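Course exercise 7: structure representation. Students receive a sequence record and must write out the corresponding structure in token form. The form below is the worked example handed out in class, using Putative ABC transport system permease protein (414 residues). Read each field label carefully; the graders check that inputs and outputs are placed in the correct fields and that the protein name is recorded exactly as given.

STUDENT ID: A-19
EXERCISE PROTEIN: Putative ABC transport system permease protein
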Amino acid sequence: MIILRLIGESFRFASDALRQNKLRTMLSLLGITIGIFTIIFVFSAVDTLRNKLQSSIDKLGSKTVFIEKWPWGGFGDYPWWKYVNRPEPSLRDYNLLKDRLEYAQGVSFEASTSGRTVKYRSNSVEGANIRAVSQDFDKTWNLDFEDGRYFTENESRSGSPVVILGAEIADGLFSGNSAIGKSITVMGRRLTVVGVFKKEGEDMMGMSQDKNIIMPLNFAKGIMDVESERYGPTITVRGYEHIALEEIESEIRGAMRSIRRITPSAEEDFALNKSTIASNQLDQMFGMVNIGGWIIGGFSILVGGFGIANIMFVSVKERTNIIGIQKSLGAKNYFILLQFLFESVALCLLGGFFGLLLVYLLTLGLTYGAGFEMTLFMNNVVLGIGISVAIGMISGFWPAYAASRLDPVEAIRS
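STUDENT ANSWER:
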């Protein structure tokens, strides 16, 4: 009950100080407001971008490994000269690998080319991405169909002239009409549409099936060199969910070294890329942004903390005789200390509330005004409240301690 009474009196004193000295209090709270706004806005923006990028990375699959010539992360001190002479993943690698892996639920070979034009009668769509894939492509990627189906095993093996379209390609060619069974022209060849993917929309990393055209690998061999570096050949392996990624990666590494006859002491001539590499790079990048947000907002909060301390010293000075009366009536030192400490926390919470309100209004403006969906996450709200409470306690402790040590007789005389 004493704590509740203390909190009630402290909030009443804080509201009295705000009401009687509006300008002084608001100017002192401005530092806290700006600091909380800066830190929480930066964290909210980073978390929003991080979630959008992570959702893109998650499409790769947590148990998926990409066997490629180049390792991911080509920036900074990237030693490209170590990798430039590596061979590209080949069909021989693919055929031998899929027979040796026990932990893989799917192994696919993929080659792609972009910026192509596809036609259907008088309609055409530019900028299409052509992907030549082996039969297990549907086991290494999550595919959602709006209409039609995936390739049959016989179509993949015989290299049938069939194709699956992304939603944007299908809309551009057929204007909302059914595409199944229609013949389109791709790279000078006529192919029959057997499936259409669901519309996904482009994510932060530009990963989407909407502008893709998928054709069987054995058919694509007749119109392009699928093992050429210009088509970015990749072997994709998706492991079983109950198998640890490290075990899957270790099995792939051992099999690839055996297939390419790499001696135990020799360095590998292939890269095993996985989603965790991209996730770690995101963590490093956004970690630096978070530090910047703490530094920028920290200065504002530091200034705001001094402002709160100044208000509390003034409040102690103005209420010295009241403190003397309280102590003469039996109030303990801790009662006086907690009273001013709670008042300091109340003022900081008020500044933090205004900061969070500004962040919330800005997120609404960006979401509905600028078309960039941004979210104020609950953990950031809790963080803002926590920082406000911490600054209130730090800023208010010394003034509160000074008030609790006042001599009641001297205090009443003042």
